[in-house]
Amino acid sequence: QKEVEQNSGPLSVPEGAIASLNCTYSDRGSQSFFWYRQYSGKSPELIMFIYSNGDKEDGRFTAQLNKASQYVSLLIRDSQPSDSATYLCAVRGYFTGGFKTIFGAGTRLFVKA
Amino acid sequence: EAQVTQNPRYLITVTGKKLTVTCSQNMNHEYMSWYRQDPGLGLRQIYYSMNVEVTDKGDVPEGYKVSRKEKRNFPLILESPSPNQTSLYFCASSLTIGTSGNEQFFGPGTRLTVL
Asked: What are the φ and ψ backbone dihedral angles of B113, each rounded to 5 degrees?
């Protein structure tokens, strides 16, 4: 079982719709959770981070964390074609071998104009 | 401008020829890390450093070395590169490792090809 799992997609949504991206993780030692956006050939760009259960909103983005169910999600409201990218979920914490960051393989999002 | 820089951005080399990829950050961050990104595998952590002179292995350390002699620099060394190290490499840094301020910021990436 992968430690951080994401649906690879592609997820296709029309412009203006809500895009919902999900991520599950296996290690209960995970302390902090991140969503990055990555355009092809570019470096990951931090969108949201969340540490506590519940929702965290920043503009059009909302991150949701449920530690009991071990999932974290990202909602993108009013999706724009410029949101088309790969979204990476990452978890950080004290895992076997030390303090590490583990990334999911990413979900590709396409927003159709 | 606060940033993480990497050099070179692109490198084509041959098997066995030692190379170093430099990484530098100007944000006084304590934590620095190297990742490689391969299609379908996502980002995998190679090595990380909690502070000067403190380094530790990530999930895929074989064939790599690092050093942290200064807070701002964290070079990645490939003593004898092999074709399976062809990949896109990213350096990243974060202020701390606590639950506040541990967001990582990434450099622009180094695309390495080993022939």
From this structure: -120, 125
